[in-house]
Amino acid sequence: MEMVTSLVTGGAGFIGSHVADELLKMGHKVVVLDDLSGGFEDNVPKGALFCKGSILDHELIELLFEKHRFTYVYHLAAYAAEGLSHFIKRFNYNNNLIGSINLINASVNHGVKLFVFTSSIAVYGAGQSPMTEDMTPLPEDSYGIAKLAVESELKVSHEMFGLDYIVFRPHNVYGERQNIGDRYRNVVGIFMNQLMKEEPMTVFGDGFQQRAFTHISDVAPIIAASVDYPSGWNQVFNVGADVPFTVNELADSIAEVMHRESRVLRLPPRNEVKVAFSDHSRAASVFGDRNKVSLREGLTAMAEWVKRHGVRESSVFEEIEISKNMPPSWASVARVHS
What is the pLDDT of residues 314-327, one digit of tens each? Predict the structure, then answer.
């Protein structure tokens, strides 16, 4: 019997490396494609074949598909900074849309059995919580628009070419291997990094934004195993935690597990959805109703990992395209490229 071979884009990143781990446990041969713009080579699990490269390099993608004859494609490579995406539109659409199209083209041309795509609850927009998959998507940022466009492209590629797919919309995922040095995304990592640097945790606005923060172990196993659930093919699934918390509550919880004083610096509010959390009954009906990690358990596990690995210096995004209306804390370090 021929070994199942899976491509994991973004497999040196946070969610992607955990999905690659799960696939290796399932007996897949795993090829990781990552340009290391947001990930780290030491995140790639042992046993996976690593290729440094970009999903924008369609010639490289063609070579990889020709060489490895992938059974499945798990597409997790993205620059997932919702708030920043307003100000990096060209970069956002190139990386999150055009790169995805390169992979869809290759998957059709090389007969991939199933394309698993990691989208986002950013496609829903505001005022729709709890979010269900049958709601009409109304994204409010460029990141969500790009993700929704890829979802639409997968649907028409299935109808036109027979490419089967599954779309997952995870949300607010945190955990071990997250890049805590990214100042624009991943609030759990940002807070932990700031506390280790003896800095206050920076909160936009009043901190009453609500999110359901999801530990990685509630997401990666389902994404990896989804290929073995044909009843879920050609569908869209929310996946993640069920219980929402405010950012203020999150800050207090992180300070507690890090054994630090809860100090907060209030920043001017930014343009973002105030309340965002999902319903997961559709995923439970297909993949089973699984026990989920509590916020306290997940934060404790991540804090232990963070303490072992230490502080990461916050990176500055180098290709800001629009500076108008940027949050002042970002604009002060922005480098604008027209």
Answer: 666 778 899 898 88
Beta-strand runs (E) in the chain: 5-9, 29-34, 49-52, 72-75, 114-118, 165-170, 173-174, 201-204, 210-211, 214-215, 236-239, 245-246, 264-267, 275-276
pLDDT digits 0-9 by tens, 203-252: 999 999 999 999 999 999 999 999 999 999 999 999 999 999 999 999 99
Banded model confidence at residue 337, pLDDT cuts 50, 70, 90: low
Residues in the chain: 338
Element containing residue 183 per DSSP (H, E): none
What are the CA-CA distances from residue 302 to residues 131, 160, 253, 298 (Å)? 27, 43, 12, 6
> C-alpha distances in angstroms, 307 versus 180, 204, 312?
11, 25, 11
ω into residue 130 within 30 of 0, thus cis? yes
Three-class SS state of 33? strand
Query: Are 286 and 238 a contacting pair, CB within 8 Å?
Result: no
User: Which residue type, as a one-letter code, is found at position 114?
Assistant: L
* pLDDT > 90 in the chain, percent: 80
CA-based torsion, 189, 194, 198, 204: positive or negative = negative
- Cα four-point dihedral sign 279, 114, 74, 2: positive
Would you put residue 36 in left (φ > 0), alpha (ψ -120 to 50) or beta? left
Answer yes or no: is pLDDT of 311 > 80.
no
* β 201-204/264-267 pair status: parallel
What is the reported pLDDT for 93?
Answer: 96
pLDDT of res. 173:
96
Distance (Å, whole) CA 223 – CA 17: 12
Q: Using an 8 Å Cβ cutoff, are 204 and 327 in contact?
A: yes
Which pLDDT does position 315 carry in this prediction?
A: 63
Specify the pTM: 0.93
- The closest alpha carbon to 298, from 203, 196, 189, belongs to 189
